Amino acid sequence: MLRIKNTHNSVVSSRLIKEFKKNKLNFLQSSYYIIIGVLFFFITACNGQSEIIVAANSTESYIHLLKSKKVAIVANQTSVIFKNSSSLLYTHLVDSLLARNIHITNVFSPEHGFRGKSDAAEHVANRTDTKTGLPIISLYGKNKKPSSAQLKSIDMVLFDIQDVGVRFYTYISTLHYVMEACAENNIPLIVLDRPNPNAHYIDGPTLNIKYKSFVGMHPVPLVYGMTIGEYAKMINGEQWLKNKIICDLTVIPLKNYTHKSTYNLPILPSPNLPNSKSINLYPSLGFFEGTPINAGRGTEFQFQRFGSSKFEKTNFSYSPKANFGSKHPKDQNMVCYGFNLKNEDRLNKVSISWLKKAYDLYPNKEAFFGKTFTIHAGNKTLRKQLENNFPTKKIEDSWKTEIEKFKFVREKYVMYE
Questions:
Q1: Cβ pair 74, 161 in contact under 8 A
Q2: pLDDT of residue 15
Q3: Residue range 133-139: average pLDDT?
Q4: Which of 71, 184, 338, 396 is the residue whose CA sits 20 to 30 A from 348?
Q5: Strand, helix or coil at 20?
Q6: Distance (Å, whole) CA 299 – CA 327
Q7: What is the DSSP letter of 166?
Q8: Cβ neighbours for 314, distance < 8 A, ≥ 6 positions apart
Q9: Neighbours of 283 (CB within 10 A)
Q10: What CA–CA distances, in Å, run from 289 to 120, 169, 409?
């Protein structure tokens, strides 16, 4: 059974993991990283640090619910069962369950696709998985919700996707639509819980339901401090599904986890969140998605820097190029002047200071706010505050009342102290 370390340092970088899987490292190099992983495991154990066990690895807690059932799985590249304590070796959940003779009918995939290689907002087509022969049905684009025809003859749906705990990260929207489809078709849903790497705080503007979209469906703060299993319980309990229907929901819990646990994702949750630094800065820099400002896409430091070709010269510059996860980055092949955030300390809040700085530096104020800025912010207030030159502290303080209201709602669904 896998134990994922609760530490501040990843055992290996995501790049090394990919190279390891592709057999690009020679035997000596591979042995070195395995030895390092084992040593790190024993050091962690000796220090008495708890180890998080993801729900997918608690196979005996849910496999009996799947036996003799026709099962659909909602999954992507993060839906894995780990084989060892270093997190280097794993099998995909689909492969593991097929090996246990579970009857899987099809796989539903979220934004970025089943293998997690598609750009943000890129169309993902239905296809057949070459390894298993299973049909892969995309839940991104026009078909965001499983149809009755796609769920025909299915007895159970299993959901296992790694979230990052930010409202405009679309995996929780996919969760909403899967729950709704299951409720409408009287199909039970099992959610395998995974840690939230941003669960250590709650902050940011709360969504005004008037601006509901696929990048924000529920009246929650930008960072809501819940695992995806807890969030599923909240969707049910607050009756956020259409017509207030209730999904037959089972959440398989994590072990040895608290909301203060530091969790470094061993697999990229999406192409432009390459490491823990980017995941931690993502809530603050994600606002730039609704502006002409480049937030590191087209570099190897996504959501760890920001800049624009229209800024006046600064001490830091970079040139975005088309790359994995960003085929057409903003200001492609142009020199962007801006700011490097890779040495920022781990944040315990949503910082609006970088958005305000970018707005102040951008010469065309009206063009700063793109079509999606309001839905990323979740309201029109933030734009008005920036336009009226509100101080950073005043903007951030304006979130507090709604955050405190949300905390009372959240408390009903918290599974981990």
A1: yes
A2: 41
A3: 92
A4: 338
A5: helix
A6: 11
A7: B
A8: 307, 337, 338, 339
A9: 26
A10: 10, 11, 29
- Residue 288 is predicted with a pLDDT of 98
* 93 secondary structure, DSSP code: H
Q: What does the alpha-carbon distance between residue 122 and residue 324 come to, in Å, rounded to a whole number?
A: 13
- Amino acid identity of residue 373, one-letter, is F
pLDDT of residue 17: 42
pLDDT value, residue 112: 64
pLDDT the model gives residue 291: 98
3-class SS string, 300-351: CCCCCEEEECCCCCCCEEECCCCECCECCCCCCCCCEEEEECCCCCCCCCCC
> What is the DSSP secondary-structure string of 26-39?
-HHHHHHHHHHHHH
| CB burial string 38-66: b at 16+ within 10 A, e below | eebbeebeeeeeebbbbbbbbbebbeeeb
User: What is d(CA 133, CA 385) in angstroms, rounded to the nearest whole number?
Assistant: 52
Two tokens, residue 224: 């809501």
Query: pLDDT per residue over 22-76, tens digit each?
Result: 444 333 333 433 333 333 334 333 333 468 999 999 999 999 999 999 999 999 9
Encoding tokens for residue 38?
């084992």
Q: Smallest Cα–Cα separation from 188: which of 160, 228, 155, 159?
A: 155
Q: Which of 191-200, 261-270, 346-355 has the lowest mean pLDDT?
A: 261-270
- Round to whole Å and give the CA distance between 361 and 8: 34
Reported for 25-29, long-range contacts at CB under 8 A and 24+ positions apart, including other chains, are: none
Q: How far apart are CA 374 and CA 370, in angstroms?
A: 8
Where b means 16+ CB within 10 Å and e means fewer, 85-94 reads bbbbbbebbb
Average pLDDT over residues 278-294: 98
C-alpha to C-alpha distance for 54 and 272, rounded to whole angstroms = 23
- Burial (0-12, 13-18, 19+ Cβ within 10 Å), 325: buried
pTM assigned to the model:
0.86
Element (H, E) at 359: helix 353-361
* Six-digit token string for 324: 């994995």
